[in-house]
Amino acid sequence: MSGVNLTHATDWVLSVQDLPSLSVLKLSRSNLPSSPLASASALNTNMSSITTLDLSQNSFSDGTIIDRFLLSLSSSLVNLDLSYCSMYEPFPRSLKNLTSLKVLDLSANNFNGSLPESLGELSQLESLDLLSNFLHGLIPGILSHLCNLRHLVLSRNNFVGDMSHMLQGETRCKRFTLEELDLSFNQLNGSLPDWVWHMQDLSMLDLSYNALGGVISDTQLANMTKLKKLSLTGNGLILNMSSAWVPPFKLNTIDLRSCRMGPRFPSWLKTQSGFDYLDISDAGILDMIPSWFPNASYAADYLNISYNQIRGEISTSLKFLSATVIDMSSNLFQGKLPLLNASVQSILLGDNLFSGDTRPILNAEMLNLRDVILSQNLLSGEIPSAICNLSSMQLIDLSNNYISGKIPVCQSYNASLQSLYVINLANNHLSGSIPPWMAGPVPHSALESNLIVLRLNNNSFHGEIPSFLRYCNSMTILDLGENKLTGNIPSWIGEGLSSSLRFLRMRSNMLTGKIPLQLSYLTSLQVLDLAQNKLSGAIPHSFKNFTAMTEANRTVEDIINYIDGASHLVEIASSKFEEVVEVEVKGRELEYTKTLSLVMVLDLSCNNLSGELPLELMDLIGLQSLNLSKNQLQGNIPDKFGGMAQLEALDLSMNRLSGKIPGSIALLTSLSYLNLSNNDLSGRIPSGNQIQTLTDPSIYAGNSDLCGSPLPKCPGDEHSRVPTQGAGAEDEGGDSDMFELYLGMGIGFVVGWWVICGAFIFKNSWRVACFRYYDHMEDKFVAAMGTFRRKILLAHQGRD
């Protein structure tokens, strides 16, 4: 028998023992219990006939049991797959006994510690895969002994140091056969050692996302004739290729993001026509896009030249590209938007100088479009009605342009737009009402919209807050600020969006009425900005239910949970869309992107709110900015403010607050902006801690009965001391104390100096160690200066 399926066997080890001629055993994803493994050695089970064993995707968490089980296997085993088995340390020591192994796959486990050098004893090994473990330390010199190794994957571990350790000392290999080397997503540093360039059979080299540096020249790549994939992304490498260089290879995958290869556009890419993946983003290129580039990219599926300073017009040059993802964002392209092939799914042209309208991209032919980012350009005109038919659209970002007119009125609840997750039309000249199709196919039912981010701020939309938003149960960011919206804030916002909404911004509209109590149902809310409206009534006491704002410190786990949350459900091919939101903090409007998960802001300023400050607001101890200025609030400032330790900005100005400033405000050690002006406050301004650094008198202006620094002194503080005989004696005593202080300092210095010198005089070993240390530091300084000088010269040569 050559093969068998033992998925439902209760004791599969015993079952295998009864099959003496079995050569191939595959039990992947079989929910195998680990207990039979423990009895394997005790039963003297010898699976001598098995050459291929696949136990992948089972759960054998006890590595010790696995180690004992491997002892029962014959040395004739050729292929062993224990990937995705949830195995922990220690690393199986018995592997070294499997001397006939050719293929070993231990990927996606939880092995910790260093990589054992004993792996070098598996001289027949051709493939070793340790992807996604927790191995760390230096990579030992196993390559010196594994002469037959063709496939080596150590990606996604925590290896450190330079790569030279992998091949050092004497080797018994006459020739290396390595074809695939993947060391990506580690912490390797230093330059690439020479042995890499001597691996003439390499077809795949992936060193991405490490901390490697140094220069790679065309001469080093001269012998790599079989190379098909070159991935060096996420390092600090410099590619110094001559303009006339013709590579000896033809690459399919060119992944060189953040490698310095400018300022000229790399001409050697012209010889690589037919590649299917190109990423030369953030490469320091300052050049015109060459005319040959579209022809060389004809077969590319993924094309990324973003974050450079590439110039030129591309209005017709992309029509014949078959790429599904094109990213040319953050460059200096100008002219009209390019015509695209209908196969394009993601087009990212944001942060350029494109002008004209959006019809070259948003037209009826582009039915495969999924992600469109055209933000931060000079685009104008209206949004074409063809957008209603783009049924695959998940993300559209036209923000920061000059687009005007009304949003097209698609058929109500158009099912073709049900895939929309992100809509960003902020900072344009759009007008009219907000159409209901943005929420997708949500008629009068309990169906949920897929919409996660809706940003329409800084336009001229009018009418009431659209009722379709009640169906957006996955909404994370809702920004309707800086428009002309009227009416009340509907209570259903707090009821329909309660589970997910983190950012609610409606500032600078014409909203009226009271703040609905239902807003307090938004327990995940981190930013609430209702400033510059016409809201009235009291601040709801129920705001204490903003659970996210009561978290004093955001932990790393909180941030990870946020990143993995609803706002990132859409997988955007190039990961270029960022949640960019504007929040007014410390009197200035600031933009937050990747740090949005850390922001906690409550801004109700510039309204007609009345009543006293609710004590419950002080329960929001995670708040970083609280702005209640320019309202009609009255009463005292609660002493509980002292418990808001994270507060960096507090603005209560232009209200009718009275009484004393509570001393607890001095306990706000993070406070860097304070404004209490134009109230009816009285008494002495508290002192101590952070509040003493806020020395601008204007922050207390308009409170006629306030006194103390930085305002004029309070009554009773002006009495100067009258010199008396006693006072004079005290002054003399003070002078005497100062003399004794200086005398003590001088004596201490002399004694300390001679203690150190005496130790060096009488302790020879100390003296030698000290001077060696200084010699070593001098050598390091000279070496560092030499390296710095070489870098300056290289940079200068690069510019030339």
From TrEMBL:
Belongs to the RLP family. It comes from Asparagus officinalis (Garden asparagus). The keyword Electron transport does not apply. Keywords: Cell membrane, Glycoprotein, Leucine-rich repeat, Membrane, Repeat, Signal, Transmembrane, Transmembrane helix. It is found in: Cell membrane. It is a single-pass type I membrane protein. This is Leucine-rich repeat-containing N-terminal plant-type domain-containing protein. Pfam families: LRR_1, LRR_8. GO terms for cellular component: plasma membrane.
